[in-house]
Amino acid sequence: MSKFEEKTNHTEIIYKGKIIQLQVDTVTLPDGQTSKRELIKHPGAVAIIALTDEGKIVFVEQYRKALEKSILEIPAGKLESGEKPEVTALRELEEETGYTTDRLNLITSFYTSPGFADELVHLYYTDQLKPLKEAASLDEDEFVEMQELTLEEAEQLASMHRIHDAKTAYALLYLSLKGNAK
């Protein structure tokens, strides 16, 4: 056991939904005391940095109920059970943007909120977009609108909180450091 590890003594599942599971774990702390941890279990997700031939970044705008507002985000979606992240990434790119690609490069994977959730996001990059011959269908409860923006336009919208989520902020930082987006 590492010096910071917490040993789980009991898990109580509070809620099990389509996307998340909420549980409360009773744990033994490194000093021998016990405590409770409220945790969200998530199957993981993907996000895609997609650049057009003109070097514009592909975004989708959608309403986020948790925020009670619409924001612009890079295309993304939840992993389905047993699905490989690159398969999810291609499916989400096609469904949300009308583009496909033969080349997705994994940039990195990161935890979104490790203090209470185990969601791991796999971030992909492509600059080899091709329009789909026939549009893919969105999920029945999903409403999005695609937009293509320059890095400068996206950074301006981020300063106005129209782009306001971690995966998209990470993508903008990546592109800024890479110097690829026009």
UniProtKB/TrEMBL annotation:
Its EC number is 3.6.-.-. Its cofactor is Mg(2+). It is an enzyme of class 3 (hydrolase). Residues 40-171 form the Nudix hydrolase domain. GO terms for molecular function: hydrolase activity. Keywords: Hydrolase. It comes from the Bacteria. Belongs to the Nudix hydrolase family. PANTHER family: NUDIX HYDROLASE DOMAIN-CONTAINING PROTEIN, UDP/ADP-SUGAR PYROPHOSPHATASE. This is NUDIX hydrolase. It comes from Halobacillus naozhouensis.
